[in-house]
Amino acid sequence: MDNGRKLLCLVVVGSWILLLVGCEKKCAEDAFCVSNTPIDTGVSITDGSQVHVVSTGTLDLGGAVLGAGAPKLSADGDSELTPQDYPFPNLRKNSLVCKVGTTAYQCGVDKTFFPGAGGDLVLQPNDNKLEDNSGAWSVKVYVTLPPNPNPNPNPNPNPNPNPTPQPTTYGPLSVSSKVLNTGLQIDAGSKVEIKAEGLVDFGGAFLGAGQVIKGPNGDDWQAPEDYPAKDLRKNSLICKVGDTWYQGGTETSFVPLQSGPLVLQPNDNDLTDNSRSWSVTVTVTPPGA
């Protein structure tokens, strides 16, 4: 993802091509910048999840002559009929499209959809010439996972009217190069159990040397001051509920002091150069269970 980095802008004047330095794609730190190429978010969507997409900013779809005629649109695109040579002719022209697996869904400024099948989430404009786009949409993605079905449902036709709350397991979730807002609302006093596996490559290698590849437990020492959770292990899985970060790892648990959405990410000060991923499962036991 190219977040707030300066670009070279091409301006054609007669037979001259001017390179203007200083155009920027400005996106929020926890958002995807969608502009002139499909963005593989690295977020694996589970079948039956709710995906909520919120987009800000405008995208210049190119085609201007001497600065005139280029549509600058929000992620809702425009209302014109979409030509058949566009990537998704059945969706809005010049709009944000969300693709999960092999299926494309209409997204925009504020859209929610429920994918019929799982797969990796890809974001892109519905445009047949992506390379001349400039500017960007700043896109945030919120995923609410479906609870795992109870493998042993109660066959009693007269169940207890006040049953004891039961643990619910969600996932697996893919954690690597983004702040992942899971969409799970955690109540204070709940027990949150984290199980994770896999490896994240933290980047920074030069000519194949100096690679930092870690499992969910990360390093054995605390992170530096400029890391998101400086009191927790460097390059480890960390979990946030409310205003507090909690230590994640291969197999950990915590009881949050505040209610709030569950956020997962590596304890790293530059997520953008990460590759590979951890697969994370979350089990939530309500208070009093």
Query: pLDDT average, as an integer?
Result: 82
- Count structural domains: 2
Please provide the ordered H/E string of secondary-structure elements: EEEEEEEEEEEEEEEEEEEEEE
Number of helices: 0
Q: Spans with pLDDT under 50 lasting ≥5 residues?
A: 1-24
- Structural class comes to mainly beta
Q: Which CATH architecture of the largest domain would you pick?
A: Sandwich
Q: Write out the CATH superfamily name of the largest domain.
A: Galactose-binding lectin
Q: Which percent bin holds the helix content?
A: under 10%
The CATH topology of the largest domain corresponds to Jelly Rolls
Biggest sheet descriptor: 5 strands, antiparallel
| DSSP E strands, number | 22
Q: Give the radius of gyration.
A: 22 Å
Q: What would your notes on this structure say?
A:
The chain has strands at 6-13, 16-24, 32-34, 39-45, 50-56, 59-60, 72-73, 96-100, 103-106, 110-113, 119-125, 134-135, 137-144, 168-175, 180-186, 191-201, 213-214, 237-241, 244-247, 251-254, 260-266, 275-285. The protein is an all-beta fold and 289 residues long. It folds into 2 domains: 28-64 and 71-144, Jelly Rolls (Sandwich); 168-285, Jelly Rolls (Sandwich). Residues 1-24 have low confidence and may be disordered.
